[in-house]
Every structure is written in structure tokens, then in C-alpha cells.
Amino acid sequence: KEKMITGITPSGEMTLGNYLGAIKRAVEFQDEYELYVFIANLHAITIPQDKEILRKNTKEIAALYFACGLDPQKSTVFLQSDVLEHAQLGWILNTQSSIGELSRMTQFKDKSSKTKAQSKDYIPAGLFTYPTLMAADILMYDAKFVPVGIDQKQHVELTRDLAIRVNNKYGTVFQIPEPLISKDKIKIMDLQDPTKKMSKSSTNQKAIIYMLDEPKVIEAKIKAAITDSENLIKYDPKNKPGVANLMTIYTTLKKITIKEAEKHWQGKNYKDLKDDVAAALIETLAPIQQRYKQLYNSSEVEQWLKDAAIKAQYEARKKLNKVQNALGLNYNR
Ligand code: ATP
Ligand code: MG
């Protein structure tokens, strides 16, 4: 089996976008690939975090991952900070990259301008070196495939550049990874501003379906979702982004095509559409939430994360030794 790695930043509560865009796919991949999934808490702290909230988000995301169907027997699901080698390899890769290439990363440009505006010109250095740590996460395990959204593609390309550079200079130590961007990759939009992506770090709670929202909350949020005044159910993301987004949510959950959905709603109005979407969401989320509650209150999750960390540490130690030897980072060999 080829290796695949994916991560999630515990920077907020998990959203429907995270589930449909990333986790559901990861669950589907775990039979086909040797899957590594890490909770990227070292990446989370590139932006200031409250320690209690970070801890809570980490625990919640871990339990939710398993509740969504990641199987600890099949996949290696661990905390990034439990494998110290990530930071060490990240440092080494910092020394192999240039200020110029890191400055060209669009995530750095976006996030640094945001933090700069919020906090008096303060740009955390970690935001700048985020991509080299991400490269370390990927190269550590010889991952062949990295499933990412368009937003992360540039980082995977930098990872490739760094891997090729190091291999050329010091002999082959890294497998060259590839970004895996599915052609039917969906993007769930904000319910109040359907031209922008639904994001867990967004501040408008009404605009986001969280994985742990109660049925009543889901109904209210969907009811209040922005549509348009046409009252015509048609898939037209450009002119009718709100309606299109609701249709995308429904068709993805129900595994049907847009055409089938349009037929289903022929002659119906937005109230019918919203009732159907809310019902489909509740139907999907209720069993996940139930399983989540069991897991959150048991000690199982922590044990699974610890076991996975031991396995990841073993792999990481081997890779780091190889890299350190290649670079002459040893006294006598
Ligand atoms: P943040 O606001 O902190 O960036 P986020 O919601 O964008 O949070 P990430 O941790 O950046 O979440 O991404 C986790 C995974 O979820 C990635 O694979 C990303 O492509 C996917 N993802 C995030 N938001 C959406 C969305 N609205 N629709 C589909 N996929 C999404
Ligand atoms: Mg994001």
C-alpha cells in the first residue's frame, strides 16, 4: 500500500466543511492507503492560542475523527507534538529553504496581513516557517500522496522542491510526494455569505454548521441561511450561491447528483429545500454525535493516540537518523 498523510489544525470547532471536504474522504481512503492522520497542534500555535481552548479543541477533534469512522486499527492517528522529530526535521528544512520562496506562499501573505491588522504589525515568525514544518510532516513518513484543498497545494509543491533539493545535494533521503486534489472536490460555503468558504476560524457562528450542533440549532441555522428572492430551486452557483450551497450539502450527504436533486425539488419552494437539508444533516450527524459522546467520555481515544504516536515515533526516528547522517549531523560514523 502507498502511504498517505493528512492533517487538521485544532484551531476551532470542526465544521461541516471539514467533514465533507476532508474527513469523509480520509475515512474512505483508509482501506486503500496506509494512512497517517495528525492533529497539527504545532501548526495551530503559529497563531496565538488560549491553552485551555487549544486543549479542548484537540480533544474534541481527536474524538470526532474516530467518531466519523477513522479506525485506529487501520490508520495512524496521532498528535503532532507527540512526535518530537517533526520539529527537528522542520528546523533542518528551514536551513534548506530561502526567504524568497517562503515569502511567496499565499497562505503566509493572507494570514500575516490579517494578524498584522489585528495586532499592531506583529507577524508571528511561525507563520513564515509554517510550510517547512508542513514539509517535515509529509517527508517524515515517505508519504506518496497528500490529499489537500487548493489552498494547500502550493505548500505541497514547496515540499516537493525541498525534497528534490535535499536529495540532489545529499543523496536520496526523501520520497517525492504528490498533492492529491480530487476532481469532484467540494467546497462548502458560509451560510450567511455564500461567496466565502465555511471556516472553523470564522467568527460568525450562525454561518457555520458545527459537527456537534444539536438538531434544533441545525434547523435554525439552515432556516436562516441566505438564499435569494426568486424562490426557484436551480443549481447556479454564480447567481444563486446560497441555494447552490444548500443543494451541494444535500447532494453530498445523500450521494445523489445535482440533476436528481433538481428533479426531486421540481415545483417545490425554499422552505421545502431547507427542511430537506436540515433533515439530511441531522440524519448524518446524529449517529456521529452519539458515538462522539461515548468516545469523549472514555479513555480510549487517549490510548489510541498514544499507541499511534509510538508507531509514528519509530518511523520518524528512522527517517531523522537517515537525514542527520546525510547532512553530517553526527560526530563519528
Ligand atoms: P481555518 O479557518 O483554521 O483555516 P478550516 O476550516 O479552513 O480552518 P483547515 O484545518 O484549514 O480547516 O482544513 C482542514 C481540511 O478541511 C482541509 O483539507 C481543507 O481543505 C478542508 N476544508 C476546510 N474548509 C472546507 C470547506 N468549507 N469545504 C470543503 N473542505 C474544507
Ligand atoms: Mg483553512
Automatic annotation (TrEMBL):
<feature type="binding site">
    <location>
        <begin position="17"/>
        <end position="18"/>
    </location>
    <ligand>
        <name>ATP</name>
    </ligand>
</feature>
<comment type="function">
    <text>Catalyzes the attachment of tryptophan to tRNA(Trp).</text>
</comment>
<dbReference type="InterPro" id="IPR002306">
    <property type="entry name" value="Trp-tRNA-ligase"/>
</dbReference>
<keyword id="KW-0648">Protein biosynthesis</keyword>
<keyword id="KW-0030">Aminoacyl-tRNA synthetase</keyword>
<protein>
    <recommendedName>
        <fullName>Tryptophan--tRNA ligase</fullName>
        <ecNumber>6.1.1.2</ecNumber>
    </recommendedName>
</protein>
<comment type="similarity">
    <text>Belongs to the class-I aminoacyl-tRNA synthetase family.</text>
</comment>
<dbReference type="InterPro" id="IPR001412">
    <property type="entry name" value="aa-tRNA-synth_I_CS"/>
</dbReference>
<keyword id="KW-0436">Ligase</keyword>
<dbReference type="Pfam" id="PF00579">
    <property type="entry name" value="tRNA-synt_1b"/>
</dbReference>
<feature type="short sequence motif" description="'KMSKS' region">
    <location>
        <begin position="197"/>
        <end position="201"/>
    </location>
</feature>
<feature type="binding site">
    <location>
        <position position="137"/>
    </location>
    <ligand>
        <name>L-tryptophan</name>
    </ligand>
</feature>
<comment type="subunit">
    <text>Homodimer.</text>
</comment>
<dbReference type="InterPro" id="IPR050203">
    <property type="entry name" value="Trp-tRNA_synthetase"/>
</dbReference>
<feature type="binding site">
    <location>
        <position position="188"/>
    </location>
    <ligand>
        <name>ATP</name>
    </ligand>
</feature>
<feature type="binding site">
    <location>
        <begin position="197"/>
        <end position="201"/>
    </location>
    <ligand>
        <name>ATP</name>
    </ligand>
</feature>
<keyword id="KW-0067">ATP-binding</keyword>
<dbReference type="InterPro" id="IPR002305">
    <property type="entry name" value="aa-tRNA-synth_Ic"/>
</dbReference>
<keyword id="KW-0963">Cytoplasm</keyword>
<feature type="binding site">
    <location>
        <begin position="9"/>
        <end position="11"/>
    </location>
    <ligand>
        <name>ATP</name>
    </ligand>
</feature>
<dbReference type="GO" id="GO:0004830">
    <property type="term" value="F:tryptophan-tRNA ligase activity"/>
</dbReference>
<dbReference type="GO" id="GO:0005829">
    <property type="term" value="C:cytosol"/>
</dbReference>
<keyword id="KW-0547">Nucleotide-binding</keyword>
<dbReference type="InterPro" id="IPR024109">
    <property type="entry name" value="Trp-tRNA-ligase_bac-type"/>
</dbReference>
<dbReference type="GO" id="GO:0005524">
    <property type="term" value="F:ATP binding"/>
</dbReference>
<dbReference type="InterPro" id="IPR014729">
    <property type="entry name" value="Rossmann-like_a/b/a_fold"/>
</dbReference>
<dbReference type="GO" id="GO:0006436">
    <property type="term" value="P:tryptophanyl-tRNA aminoacylation"/>
</dbReference>
<feature type="binding site">
    <location>
        <begin position="149"/>
        <end position="151"/>
    </location>
    <ligand>
        <name>ATP</name>
    </ligand>
</feature>
